[in-house]
Recover the amino acids of this structure.
């Protein structure tokens, strides 16, 4: 005869009861059955009890002098503590400062206690981007009622800030709290902060278990707690990585070379990626090439082929000329020795040289001029390698692709042209602008060419078939600079209207406008996809972080001359070339490094 399910339960309960009676165990103290909801509640209570704060406090009346004194003394105590305690104790400054400020908001507004406290201790958190942004938002709140209108501050107030201290650091803190008058700090630590005793870096505890120094927990609840703690550590690590990755980039080191020469008016300037040479073009139709780094061996230029042969006998040689006379050969070799600090002159143009650049292979230079020609030069010897004709009006600008296989020019004839060094005529003509093409740039993938014009527009062309795929409108003056970010998704343009516009190339619309220059912006260059550097006719160089909200401007540097060119070297140093307005006769080139 089978027993029903209810009878089995009764039999089991009776057996347990006899077992407990035989061992004199009080059945009223132990609950034999528990629902799922009761079990979940018990686990939550046990978990919270393991994280409870061991810091006691006593309430006290709040006033500005007491709050200022207690917080200042606490900071001084941390700075005087041992080095191994400082990093852990410094975690407490952020929640203490924030909650003291929030409590001071409850005082009468006429006292201005919260504002005074905020101004005095704001500098403590300026080096941490995350804390700096929150503290700035906190300072904009003038009353307790405004907290609910700021989501970040409201979320901070609604939750408890968790701080993990090692046992030695906790004992050190406990000793200070026992011996000092700090009732306000005790109150905040107890009510608003979870002080947990453990390994604050999240690694020491596991190391102790592996070494057998500690006994691993046996209960399921303890295992759950350890797993939750490890998950929290992973989340904290992910948050730190995100903060570093999304944080504002560092301002680059900056070096400025000032060209001081009374013989000409410089129109362009550029330094090669190695920082070894400086190239400039001037109104006297000459190109000058300086060597910036000292060298023991002078450069010897052979200009025999360009010398004019006269019937008169040669005069005595000078120190700067070397004439090799060989009786077996009628031709005399003529060369010139160029030492450190002296300019090498590249002659060939018959009009002002408006732009000159180094090609990426560092073997050749390209220049454009008022004489409508484009010229290719050899960097080592200074010899003219090729002359390109095509434009019918002066050529204003030139830019190379990332490999140096092609370069593009912009001209007064309203066109941009694509060239290859080995072909004497342009291989593509980009026509569509209504006025002069003042600037030209390549996309990082080299599949597109961007041009800026006096018609106030920027156009994006496919390099291979010269098809216009984007037209960016919005500038109120001549567009004198256009560059694409290294990621290729956004572009920056600037010009006569003194504004820098950031464009989304995918959607073909502006996403940000940077204001600050007081005159025409002539140069733009990206450090990375967030850091943008600009220079203009207002004799200033500005560094922007386009990833920030309303405070994009990071640094501003003012110089005495007009900046002609900007570029980054291989060491990520931003190098500027400026034309000095000083009329005194200085050396040909003076370098003025300015690190941020």
């Amino acid at each position: 005869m089978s027993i029903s399910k209810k009878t089995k339960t009764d039999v089991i309960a009776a057996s347990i009861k006899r077992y407990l009676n035989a061992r004199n165990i009080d059945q009223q103290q132990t609950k034999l059955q528990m629902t799922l909801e009761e079990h979940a509640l018990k686990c939550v209570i046990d978990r919270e009890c393991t994280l409870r704060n061991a810091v006691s406090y006593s309430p006290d009346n709040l006033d500005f002098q007491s709050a200022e004194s207690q917080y200042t003394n606490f900071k001084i105590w941390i700075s005087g503590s041992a080095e191994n305690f400082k990093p852990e104790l410094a975690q407490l400054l952020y929640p203490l400062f924030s909650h003291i400020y929030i409590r001071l908001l409850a005082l009468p507004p006429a006292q201005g206690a919260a504002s005074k406290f905020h101004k005095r201790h704001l500098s403590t958190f300026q080096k941490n981007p995350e804390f700096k942004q929150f503290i700035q938002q906190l300072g904009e709140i003038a009353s307790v009622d405004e907290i609910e209108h700021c989501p970040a501050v409201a979320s901070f107030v609604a939750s408890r800030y968790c701080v993990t201290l090692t046992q030695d650091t906790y004992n050190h803190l406990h000793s200070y709290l026992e011996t000092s008058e700090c009732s306000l700090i005790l109150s905040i630590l107890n009510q608003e902060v979870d002080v947990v005793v453990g390994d604050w870096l999240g690694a020491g505890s596991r190391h102790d278990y592996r070494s057998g120094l500690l006994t691993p927990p046996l209960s399921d609840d303890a295992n759950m707690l350890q797993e939750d703690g490890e998950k929290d550590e992973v989340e904290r690590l992910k948050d730190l990585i995100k903060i570093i990755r999304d944080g504002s980039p560092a301002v680059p080191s900056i070096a400025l070379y000032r060209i001081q020469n009374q013989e000409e008016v410089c129109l362009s300037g550029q330094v090669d990626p190695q920082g070894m040479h400086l190239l400039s073009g001037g109104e006297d139709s000459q190109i000058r090439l300086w060597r910036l780094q000292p060298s023991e061996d002078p450069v010897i230029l052979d200009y025999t082929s360009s010398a004019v042969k006269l019937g008169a006998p040669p005069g005595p040689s000078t120190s700067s000329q070397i004439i090799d006379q060989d009786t077996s050969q009628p031709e005399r070799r003529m060369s010139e020795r160029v030492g450190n600090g002296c300019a090498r002159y590249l002659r060939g143009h018959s009009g002002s040289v408006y732009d000159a650049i180094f090609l990426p292979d560092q073997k050749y230079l390209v220049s454009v001029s008022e004489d409508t020609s484009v010229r290719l030069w050899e960097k080592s010897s200074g010899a003219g390698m090729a002359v390109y004709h095509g434009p019918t009006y002066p050529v204003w600008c030139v830019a190379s692709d990332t490999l140096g296989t092609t370069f593009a020019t912009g001209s007064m004839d309203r066109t941009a042209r694509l060239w290859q060094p080995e072909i004497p005529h342009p291989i593509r003509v980009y026509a569509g602008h209504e006025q002069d093409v003042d600037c030209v740039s390549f996309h990082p993938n080299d599949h597109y060419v961007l041009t800026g014009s006096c018609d106030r527009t920027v156009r994006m062309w496919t390099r291979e078939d010269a098809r216009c795929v984007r037209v960016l409108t919005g500038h109120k003056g001549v567009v004198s600079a256009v560059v694409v970010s290294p990621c290729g998704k956004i572009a920056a343009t600037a010009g006569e209207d003194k504004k820098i516009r950031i464009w989304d190339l995918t959607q073909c619309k502006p996403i940000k406008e940077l204001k600050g220059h007081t005159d025409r912006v002539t140069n733009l260059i990206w450090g990375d996809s967030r850091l943008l550097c600009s220079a203009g006719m207002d004799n200033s160089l500005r560094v922007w972080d386009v990833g920030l909200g309303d405070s994009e401007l990071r640094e501003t540097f003012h110089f005495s001359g007009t900046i002609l060119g900007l570029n980054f070297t291989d060491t990520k140093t931003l190098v500027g070339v400026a034309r000095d307005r000083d009329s005194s006769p200085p050396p040909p080139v003076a370098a003025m490094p300015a690190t941020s």
